[in-house]
Design brief:
This protein has 18 helices and 4 strands. A two-stranded parallel ribbon has the order 1-2. By secondary structure, it is mainly α. Strand 3 and strand 4 form a beta hairpin. Helix 14 runs antiparallel to helix 15. It has 3 domains: 163 residues, no CATH class; 123 residues, no CATH class; 43 residues, no CATH class. It comes from Prunus yedoensis var. nudiflora. InterPro entries: Probable_transposase_24. This is Transposase, Ptta/En/Spm, plant. Pfam families: Transposase_24.
C-alpha cells in the first residue's frame, strides 16, 4: 500500500512538473525570438561606411598574445562592460525618423542660438556628425585641424543621406567643423584611457586594441600601433596630458544637463509653458532633479544663490521706473543684464564667451560693476525716453486741436477748399498775400456738385 502511494505521488509529481518545464523551455525560446526581433535595424550611416583596405584585427597576433595571462585577457575584453555608461551612438534614432517621415530631416541654424533649430533635430544631427567623424577621420594625425578642409567636406557629404543641409553656407559649415573637431578630440581621449589601463606595459597595450564599439569596425591594428608609438609614448604629449589633468582639477563642479546645450535646455522649458531666465536655467542645470533640486555641491549652490540675489536687485531697480500697478512677475530683466550677471559670477573665457554656458553666449562687460551700472543706466534712460515721448504726444494733441478748431472756423465762412490748404497753413502758419490779408481759394466742387468734407 505504501509503495502504491509513493508511486502515485511520484507519478503525479512528474505529471504536474512536466508541462511546466516544457512551457518554460518554450517561453525561453519565445523570449530569445523576441530579443532577436527587438534588435534595431542598422542605420544608414553604419551601412555606408567604406571598407578598409586592411582587415580589422580584433584579435592580436599569436606571438603577441602569448605574453598575456588569461586574467589580463579577460580584463582587456571586459574593461568597458564593468561600468554602466552610455552606449556608442549608432544613429538608430535618425534612421527611425527618416524611415517614418519617408524624407530627409531639414536642418537650419538658429541665428541667435547658433545651433540647429529644434530640440529633437539638434541631437540627431550632432550624433550623425560624430558617427561620420569616427568612421572616416584618420588616426595618424595630431588633430583634426591638420586635415585639409576639402577632406572634411568630402566626409560631410554623407550627412546629405539623411539630412537636408546646405554644406556651403558658412555658418553651417563652421558648426559642422567645430563638432567634428570636438568629436575627434573626445574620441582620442577615450582611446587614450584604454591605453592607460595597460601602461607602462607597452607590449601588452599594443597587443590589446580597443573593442570594436570604441575603436570602430573598419580600423586596423596598425592604426592602434601608430597611436601608441607616435602619440601616447611621446614625452611632449605626456607632459601636455599632465598639464591638462592638473588644469581639470581647478573645475569645482559639473553640470547635470548631459549632452544637450545650455540654450536648448532653456528652449525645452519654454515649450512646457515656463519662462526661465538664464539664471534659473543655470540653477536647474546644476541641481539633481531626482533629489528635489539639490545642488551638485556647495560651490555651485553659492554661485546659484549669488546670481539669484543679483537678479532680484536688478528687478527692484527696474520696478522703480515701472508704473505703480505693474505686478512683480511682469517685470522682465533684459537678456543683456542677465548675461552681465552670469559673466560676473562665472567669468569670461576666450572670445568673450561666458564659462559653462556654451559657445553661443558672449558679453561685452566682464565685471559685476559693469552689470550694475548697465541696470541703473537702462532704468534712467527708459524713464527719460518715456517723459520725452509723453511731451511729444501732448504737443501733437495740441496741434491737432488747433487744426480742428481752425477747420471749423473756415467751414463757417464757407469760402475755402480744404484740399488746397498749404502744408504750412496746416501747421499753424497762415499764408498771406501782398496786402497782408488771408488769401483763400474758391471752393472746387467734386463730381456731383458736393463739396469736400474732411471732418465727416
Amino acid at each position: 500500500m505504501t509503495k502504491f502511494l509513493l508511486g502515485s505521488f511520484a507519478l503525479g509529481h512528474e505529471h504536474c512538473a512536466g508541462p511546466s518545464l516544457k512551457k518554460k523551455k518554450t517561453s525561453d525560446r519565445t523570449i530569445g525570438q523576441k530579443q532577436k526581433l527587438a534588435q534595431p535595424p542598422l542605420p544608414p550611416s553604419s551601412l555606408a561606411q567604406p571598407p578598409s583596405s586592411a582587415p580589422h584585427q580584433s584579435e592580436p597576433p599569436q606571438h603577441e598574445s602569448s605574453s598575456r595571462s588569461p586574467d589580463q585577457s579577460i580584463i582587456a575584453r571586459t574593461s568597458l562592460h564593468n561600468k554602466k555608461t552610455r552606449g556608442p551612438t549608432k544613429g538608430a534614432g535618425t534612421y527611425d525618423v527618416v524611415n517614418k517621415s519617408q524624407g530627409q530631416i531639414q536642418i537650419r541654424l538658429d541665428p541667435e542660438q547658433k545651433l540647429v533649430e529644434g530640440i529633437k533635430t539638434h541631437p540627431l544631427f550632432v550624433n550623425e556628425i560624430g558617427i561620420i567623424t569616427r568612421a572616416k577621420a584618420p588616426l595618424n594625425v595630431l588633430g583634426l585641424k591638420k586635415v585639409p578642409k576639402e577632406d572634411k567636406q568630402e566626409w560631410a557629404e554623407a550627412l546629405k543621406f539623411n539630412f537636408d543641409v546646405d554644406l556651403m553656407e558658412p555658418a553651417m559649415w563652421r558648426f559642422i567643423d567645430d563638432h567634428m573637431c570636438s568629436t575627434y578630440k573626445e574620441w582620442k581621449s577615450k582611446l587614450h584611457k584604454h591605453f592607460k589601463k595597460f601602461y607602462p606595459d607597452i607590449e601588452l597595450a599594443r597587443a590589446t586594441p580597443p573593442p570594436e564599439e570604441l575603436f570602430g569596425t573598419t580600423r586596423t591594428i596598425e592604426e592602434w600601433h601608430w597611436l601608441i608609438d607616435n602619440l601616447y609614448t611621446n614625452e611632449q604629449y605626456q607632459r601636455r596630458c599632465k598639464a591638462n589633468a592638473k588644469n581639470r582639477q581647478h573645475i569645482k563642479f559639473n553640470h547635470t544637463g548631459g549632452s544637450r546645450p545650455f540654450l536648448k535646455h532653456k528652449e525645452l522649458a519654454e515649450t512646457k509653458g515656463e519662462h526661465p531666465t538664464y539664471i534659473s536655467n543655470w540653477q536647474a542645470m546644476h541641481q539633481y532633479r531626482k533629489k528635489g533640486g539639490v545642488y551638485v555641491n556647495e560651490v555651485a549652490e553659492a554661485k546659484g544663490k549669488n546670481m539669484a540675489a543679483e537678479l532680484e536687485k536688478v528687478k527692484e531697480q527696474l520696478a522703480s521706473s515701472a508704473p505703480n500697478d505693474t505686478p512683480p512677475y511682469q517685470i522682465m530683466v533684459p537678456e543683456k543684464l542677465q548675461l552681465g550677471i552670469l559673466s560676473a559670477e562665472l567669468g569670461v573665457g576666450k572670445d568673450k564667451k561666458i564659462r559653462g554656458v556654451g559657445s553661443s553666449l558672449r558679453v561685452q562687460g566682464t565685471s559685476r560693476r559693469i552689470s550694475e551700472s548697465n541696470a541703473t543706466n537702462t532704468s534712467y534712460d527708459s524713464k527719460h525716453k518715456v517723459d520725452e515721448l509723453s511731451g511729444k504726444v501732448d504737443k501733437l494733441l495740441g496741434v491737432i486741436q488747433k487744426m480742428q478748431a481752425h477747420i471749423k472756423y473756415l467751414r463757417k465762412k464757407g469760402s475755402i477748399n480744404i484740399y488746397k490748404l498749404t502744408h504750412k497753413h496746416m501747421w499753424g502758419v497762415k499764408p498771406r498775400n501782398a496786402t497782408g490779408k488771408m488769401q483763400f481759394a474758391k471752393p472746387q466742387p467734386l463730381h456731383g456738385g458736393a463739396h469736400p468734407d474732411v471732418c465727416a
